[in-house]
Amino acid sequence: MHIHKSLSSLGGELERARQELRIVEEQILFQMDVAEEERTRMLVAETPLAERNYRIARDDLERMHKERQRVSQDIERLRTEQDRLLDRMLG
């Protein structure tokens, strides 16, 4: 019974992590557009402010990529734990 409860809990965590990944991926797509816009402004304007805005947008995008990697690793960890519990249950 303990395994069933753990599997149920892991299933909920896995679903939340997948939802978080979908949100992060949507944010990445948006931020890619923002960074590209700021890059274009920087190239056209050639001002320190435009360069600063581009750096900020680029850094934000990099942080989002790192967040996606973290969430993906969480999902993989949860899947591995789920597989381990299923093996114990069946084994």
- Given helix and strand content, the structural type is mainly alpha
Radius of gyration: 20 Å
* Termini gap: 15 Å
Fraction in beta strands = under 5%
Give, in order, the helices and strands: HH
Mean pLDDT: 95
Low-confidence stretches: none
Tally of separate helices = 2
User: Helicity level, as a percent range?
Assistant: over 70%
The domain count comes to 1
Task: Give the number of DSSP strands.
Answer: 0
Largest sheet: none
How does the overall form come out from the CA principal axes?
rod-shaped
Characterization of this structure:
- By secondary structure, the chain is mainly α.
- It has helices at 2-45, 48-90.
- The radius of gyration is 20 Å and the shape is rod-shaped.
- The model has no long low-confidence stretch (mean pLDDT 95).
